Amino acid sequence: MQTHITNTQIRNIIDLPQTDQTILDYPMRIFAIDLGDQRTGLALADRITCIASPAGLIETPIEREQGRLLINEIVKQFQQQASGPETEIVLGIPLNMDNTEGPRAKLVRDFALKLANRLDRPVMLVDERKTSQLADARMSQSGLTHKQKKQRRDAIAAAAIAQLYLDEPDTSVIDTVEPLEHK
Fold first, then answer.
1. Which pTM does this prediction carry?
2. pLDDT band at 26 (very low <50, low <70, confident <90, very high)
């Protein structure tokens, strides 16, 4: 059984200076996704510790059953690791270097809408342009083989997306995809 702590409970537990209370204006947990064709990285972040960590890798191709199998697996991981009203979902969106959106960004937007509808909560789209490079840089001195690095890269990129959102919640979000109302 999971116990969820609300922002109000946290305000009562910790003694933050009034100027630091703004971190409590946001949900405490972040579930980040780095969507890939073959592998999708997951990460969790926490606003109290300001730490984002890789949380897993899903090896379900996005094209299988129009993405339904991947969404099912993401929902399963979300429910196991991060569900609760105090968790936000962020999904990396690949922008072109001139800030325009290409075909891959459209695919991510479509996927975000399916995920938002399935979880009945908004999905924030965060610029992921340099997260894979950051993941590669973090692993460059690790001593891992190429295959081992490849298997960890997407989860580390998801952690970079989460960290970016933690560090810059007001400026890192490109858009928010809201779930459609159920009729």
1. 0.80
2. low
